[in-house]
Amino acid sequence: MSSIKYQNSIRKKRDEFLIGIVNQFIQSDENQTIFDCYDYAKIIAETTIQSFIDNLTEEERTLVVINTKAWFLPIESIRTFVVFLSNNEITLNQI
User: Fold this and answer.
1) What's the average model confidence in pLDDT over 78-83?
2) How far is CA 31 from CA 2, 5, 57, 88, 90, in A?
3) Whole-model pTM?
C-alpha cells in the first residue's frame, strides 16, 4: 500500500474515531453547545488516543506516532473543530 493510501486510511479511521466521540457527546446530558462539545471531544480523544493507535495497522501506526498532533488537527482548536463538524455535516442543538 502506498503512503497516500495509508494516509487516507488513517484519516478515515481518525474521522470515525472523532465522530464516535461527538456522537457520544450528543447522546449525553451535557449542554449541547459547540464549546462543550469541543471540550468533551478533546478530553475523550486525549484519554483514548492510545487505544485508537493500537487499533491501526503497523504501517499506519508508524505514520501516526511520528507526529500524532498533526493527525489530530481537527481538535487542535475550536476553529478547526467547527470545520471538522461542518465537513462531516454534524450540527449541534444550540441551547
Assistant:
1) 95
2) 43, 38, 36, 21, 16
3) 0.90
